[in-house]
Amino acid sequence: MEQQDRSYKDKKVITIGTVSELTGLTLRQIRYYEERKLIAPYRNERGTRKYSFNDIEILMDIADKREDGVQTTEILKEMRLKEKKRESEAAVKKKMLQGQLNAQFRYGRGKI
């Protein structure tokens, strides 16, 4: 997907320092969540991390859960389950749309 095709919330343009200021998390915490695979910033050719507004929302959610005592392994499990659910829902929608297109094509074809 090209950069201009994505929502502004998905564009990875925010530096780690700004993310720290916006979230109240330390640089170390942000790096730790990256190490734990909870967040995946873009890295430019010089290795500078760049985050999106969606990444910031994820980090805020992680921080809230950590304050409630939830371990990072549990957060990761939950994130993976949500992703699987989204993928499954997308697959079902795609099948439904394909079925509708097939039905319409066959219906229209029989009338010609």
Automatic annotation (TrEMBL):
InterPro entries: DNA-bd_dom_put_sf, MerR-type_HTH_dom, MerR_fam. Coiled coil: none annotated. Keywords: DNA-binding, Repressor, Transcription, Transcription regulation. The keyword Transcription applies. Residues 13-81 form the HTH merR-type domain. This is MerR family transcriptional regulator.
